[in-house]
Design brief:
With 118 residues, the protein is α+β, with helices and mostly antiparallel strands. It is 42% helix and 20% strand. The protein contains 4 helices and 3 strands. The chain has a 3-stranded mixed beta sheet, covered by helices on one side. Helix 1 packs parallel to helix 3. It is flat, with a radius of gyration of 20 Å.
Length: 118
């Protein structure tokens, strides 16, 4: 299993079966190696910094009916809402005051994601 981890770390393509094996493995050595490479990659790009991002759920209305999702179209018990522009800006102001400098607006109905760095 560690050979698959090494292959991934070299940036090589993994087949579906290799990815599945990696996800489902109980190999402690492979897990430790994967953790080591993930930490090295994180430090290479971000160092020891921590980045906070604010997620703003603009709406709980969705045209999709994904069975795993609590706000799926067919869930009649879901509480529905749409934030106004003022509500969204208040969320941004609140997050900015808590040192969040990037805000991800998520529109469930359209399934689009946008990050707006301050």
């Amino acid at each position: 299993m560690t050979d698959i981890v090494e292959k991934l770390n070299r940036g090589e393509f993994l087949s579906d079966s290799e990815l599945k094996a990696l996800i489902e493995t109980d190999d402690a050595n492979a897990a430790e190696l994967l953790k080591k490479y993930a930490d090295e990659t994180r430090q290479k790009y971000y160092g020891k910094k921590v980045f906070l991002r604010g997620l703003i759920e603009v709406s709980s209305y969705c045209r999709n009916d994904c069975l795993y999702c609590g706000i799926r179209r067919s869930n009649k018990d879901a509480q529905r809402y749409r934030l106004s522009r003022e509500d969204i800006m208040a969320c941004c102001k609140n997050g900015y005051e808590r040192s969040e400098k990037c805000f991800l607006r998520r529109y469930r109905m359209l399934h689009t994601w946008q990050c707006h760095a301050a």
